[in-house]
Please model this.
Amino acid sequence: LAEELEWERQEIQRFREQEQLLVQKELEELQSMKQQILAQQEEERQAHLMMQKETYAQQQQQLEQIQKLQEQLRLQLEEQKFRQMYPDRDL
Model:
């Protein structure tokens, strides 16, 4: 009986060790998946950030063009006013 109990105890111990190894393996796989997902999210975040920077740069360029055009229009309007006020004068 003592031998049988010892054998069962050892069987239970082996089963627990196998279960522990399986759980450890699953945890490692999950950790690996988590790292891959985090890396992918970081890549996507970086790509999104680059797109935002490019969009911002384009908007800045457009704004500068608009401001230049506004300045040109302002100068043309001043010139027109001057010509209307002094039609006989050359600029």
Observations:
- The chain has a mean pLDDT of 96.
- Residues 37 and 43 are 10 Å apart (CA to CA).
